[in-house]
């Protein structure tokens, strides 16, 4: 089924995200979960753990509104996600995927990742939060070093930290790992 775009704008995330009696199943497959009730309160860290195939990624996809629930609803401060504009909702979220993408460019460009503004003080703040600032600063060309250039490779952990810096650059209200 086609997702309908919402028209309401979410100005600020205030209290909580709720899964209210959410059921979901991929087309042609058994229902993954039914009548799921979850609350993610603002300011709290919530970890979702479970075996492979238990629905962790699906919960994230429902939060990002890649899919709508088969039944029930996901709300933000009581407003159904389906009523919000995609832009006003996704602007609130910083997302760090398991599949990291670091491209052949400077560290600064990898962090601002296509955004128009990348004021160096914002980039510095984001890399300090992600614990990768000292590593970059110690490189001969610092933030202007091209990642991957001339055999320059960075570890998986450093790639993850760059992805975190990219996610926190905009000071999102919600951070999903």
Keywords, separated by commas or semicolons:
two-stranded parallel ribbon; alpha+beta; 177 residues; elongated; 18% strand
Summarize the entry for a quick read.
The chain is of the alpha+beta class and 177 residues long.
What does the model show?
By secondary structure, the protein is an alpha+beta fold. It is 27% helix and 18% strand. The chain has six helices and six strands, in the order E-E-H-E-E-H-E-H-H-H-H-E. The strands form two sheets. It has a four-stranded antiparallel sheet, with no helix packed on it. It has a two-stranded parallel sheet with strand order 5-6. Helix 4 (120-129) packs across helix 6. The model has no long low-confidence stretch (mean pLDDT 87).
The number of E-state strands comes to 6
Strand residues, percent: 15-25%
* Contiguous uncertain segments of 5+ residues: none
User: Distance N terminus to C terminus?
Assistant: 28 Å
Question: What's the gyration radius in Å?
Answer: 19 Å
